Amino acid sequence: DSSRVPGGLQTWITAAGGSTTSKLPIADIANEYQDELKILYDHGLRNVQFDDPNLAYFCSEAMLTGWSKDPLNTYSADTLLEKYITLYNACTAHIPSAPARPQHTDSSKA
After folding, report:
1. Which of 3, 37, 43, 100 has its CA 20 to 30 A from that of 92?
2. Cα(75)–Cα(96) distance, rounded to whole angstroms?
3. Cα dihedral sign for 87, 2, 103, 11?
4. Residue 50 burial (CB < 10 Å; 0-12/13-18/19+)?
5. For residue 18, what pLDDT is reported?
6. For residue 61, pLDDT beyond 70
7. Could you tell me whether strands 103-104 and 50-51 are parallel, antiparallel, or unpaired per DSSP bridges?
8. What is the rounded distance in angstroms from the CA atom of residue 46 to the CA atom of residue 31?
9. Is the pLDDT of residue 19 over 60?
10. From CA 28, how far away is CA 22, in angstroms rounded?
11. Does position 106 have pLDDT exceeding 70, yes or no?
């Protein structure tokens, strides 16, 4: 179904007992990442990369069109993208500035 963003945030939401139609548990997910990143930093981590090639779907006209037509989506694609950005920023909000935080997307998915 081209109106769904597979994996990524949708997977986290489902794993946290939510759905794309419910309030997103961004704070809960971010807290888990913050705790893990702190532990890893304390043990020497100085580079972390988030691989979420599903972000490229937000560049896909087919996905965006399908998303807007799907009555199960209570968020617009723009709103969901903002939630992705908010989540990644929250996940890394409390780690020291030393670790690099690149974001990987796969443009071949678009």
Report:
1. 3
2. 33
3. positive
4. middle
5. 46
6. yes
7. parallel
8. 19
9. no
10. 14
11. no
- 35 and 94 Cβ atoms separated by less than 8 Å: no
**Which residue, among 98, 88, 7, 86, has the nearest Cα to 45 in the 3D structure?**
98
Percent of the chain with pLDDT over 90: 5
Q: Is 48 within 8 Å of 100 (Cβ atoms)?
A: yes
Model confidence pLDDT, tens digit, residues 63-105: 899 988 988 888 888 988 888 888 888 988 887 765 555 555 5
The residue type at 5: V
Give the Cα separation of 55 and 84 in Å (integer): 8
Query: What is the spatial distance between Cα 92 and Cα 13, in angstroms, rounded to a whole number?
Result: 18
Distance from C-alpha of 66 to C-alpha of 81, rounded to nearest angstrom: 15
Q: Is 31 exposed, middle or buried (0-12, 13-18, 19+ CB in 10 A)?
A: middle
* 62/109 Cα distance (integer angstroms): 11
Q: Dig out the tokens for 52 from the structure.
A: 């979420």
CA 52: distance to chain centroid? Answer: 7
